[in-house]
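Following up on my earlier thread - several people asked me to post the actual chain instead of describing it. Fair enough. Here it is, all 813 residues.
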Amino acid sequence: NHWVGVYDSWPVGEEIRPAPRFRRWLISGDDDLVTDPDAPTKSAPFDASAEVVASGADNEAVRAGLLEVPAGAIAWWVGDQNMKAKLGGRVEPAADVPAAAARLQAAPRAAHEWFAGGDQVAADAPELDRLASTETFGLVAPATGSLFHDATASATGLLTNVRAGGFRKDLNFLLEKPKPQPNTPEVAPLYTAGSSDGINLGELWVDHNVWAEVEYPTSPPAHADGSSIPSGMPFLVCTAEKNDPFILYKHLPRLQLTLLYSLISKSRTTAGGKKQYDLFLVADPVFTIWNPFDVCLHVPRDAFATFKSWAIPYDLNLKLANGPQGSKTSYSNSIKRLSNDRLFFFYGQLGRAQNLVMRPGEVQVIAQGFGEPIKNVPGGSWQFDGKLGWEFASGYAYPIPYETDPKLMDGSQRITYSMSPNVEKSDAGMFLWSYNIGELADGSGSTKYVGSFNIDLLYSRLPAESPISASDFPEIFPSLPLDPSAAKTIAELDGNKWPICVFTYGMRTESDPFFDSGQTTGTRFTGRAMLRANETSVAQDLYNLSPDMVRTSPLQVGMRRVNSLNSPIIECDATGLGYYGAEYGAAGGVSHVVTRSIPREPIHSLGALQHAAAEGVRFGQQRGERSWFLQPSISHAISNSFAPSFIGPSEIRGQLAGRDAADHSYLANLALWDTYFYSSIKPRTTSAHRNERTAYREQKQRLEAFLAKDGDDWQPLPNERMRPWTHDPEGTLKEIFASVRPAGDAADRIASFLMVDGMFNVNSTSVAAWKAFLSGLKGAKVPVQTTPSLRKDAELEETSKTPVAALLTPASG
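Reply from S.P.:
Thanks for posting it. Predicted structure:
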């Protein structure tokens, strides 16, 4: 029937979708009829009607009810032009990468091809500028179907807030400013949960301004594999300051800590010519790190990363058989006590001794590097310089005092082993893998901890929580029972490293083949892994291992037996690259995984905030060894919809492990899409945070060119759908830029001077209009970057179909 219905908008104070409240149909007729939401389904809705839209070759008829008036009767009907696809307006091909990238954020047209039977009329055909109505479209190309109800030659819309009234606020002005101060309205949360703030304007300020943090070195540092990086490649450089507001982008993202434990013996010959054997536990710490961005990542030497790990919460239990008379038959000790009872097991320093440069999306395995021998640990915790690559011959050896009498250390003892989770509890916590910038303590004794992956950390406990032990969670910390078939004599281990177990701690994946051997490995959780982990987070926390936290968190503990080199340990290629994606192995993982795009200029689409690092951390929050974000961890919260499974289907807030939690996607999108927009009135070369004077001058110049009356001087905005709406361009410019800075209310007022060409109502029921709208990028040029080989600039590639609107630069190999 092509009727347009009117409903109440959501009340501004309501967050849960209210029951739809129907007002009326925008058509003439009896009040009882036009206020009935089911009226269009009735076979004969009007007692008396008139045809207000005649049927024709390109449209269906519309009939409206007759209303009596003194001189006869009238009928009327309203059709919403914003329900239709707006046709017309030639679109020139993008001339360069910035122009093409801008269109991927805001399509410049609706695809007329859906109404013209294919590609016979190019998007830049001059005739498209001369469409006066849908009837004249037939002069351009024969229409293949109805046009009147599905397309229009003229449709503009206002940037209004349909819930609160008034105009929307422009984030290109609101966020284009120097660094805001904590605890001010400039960094206010978009929503809260309990006493915790959610994603906030301060975090969006970071996401809006990160483009200006990208560097383009003419002589970039070389990769650790010896290859060079092309001059001018975009880089993010890790910061040396823990309070850098861009820390979520300018740090070294971690994926997984892998600790391989092995046994080895070393013999020495006594004065009497007999051999004595010392036994050692060898630890191989291996870090899997990742650059999730589509730019290179560099860790400079003045900002090297120190990864600190506690000893795993396990006991090593040895059975010693067939030894000499009087020798011990067993030995047990915790991993912690084997390292001289130190809480901190080791410190790995990355980016200090070797260049740490990561290509876009690159996954690296960092350990001792290739060709390194086993090294003795003199006592206590130890530190080492992490290097690209790992091989089995390396590691760090801790002495195992299996005998006190040297005469009984003849190597004849036959070893079998088991491992059991610790029973004891620690006030400090159960396990930690932390990140410190630089040395653990500088000359003043202060540290630069920016975050940790924790279990039961002291600083993260609630007042009512007590220390826990690993033995209380056998499904998370499984025992490795004694296997009589896995046995070797101490003499057989002389110079021969015998792997016994692998402990992992880090991000879960879609599949877990390393733990699919059928052995007892504890409960494993897989699936939807990348949705659960904000890859830019510096901290994650399993808290007290409550079931809801264990199931929801992106973190996962792993413990499994390995008895030989034939067992899966860790995979990396010959250059030291690891694998990530569906798994940590080559079968389901890849060495380059880009999931976040770093803009090269200010964004101008709410959809581009999909790549935001925002996670619900109060702006200006001091960093440390605990996590601060509002639970749960979620990736790409904005412009997506991922409802946390632990929150009820009709709820948007809850508790996770006793902590405040929220449905981030729902609440962030609810707060953003009705209230804010991006005008694309933005600077070109720098941000106001970096250079206030230059940024505001460029922003003003862009607005001035957009408001120009002379067609030769007029320039469209990066969002080419924007149109000026003012009778006094000079006065408008002065209202927005009263001086060299934007007016204090510029973000609130600029929408009143703008209209949007081809504004489209998401409530449209026209299938043809939706096809044209969603195909607005049909035939558009797309910037493409090669990977893993790199080049300075992306290249434009022609497309015949419809690219997906995105901030991310596609990769090709």
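The mean pLDDT is 92. That should answer part of your original question.
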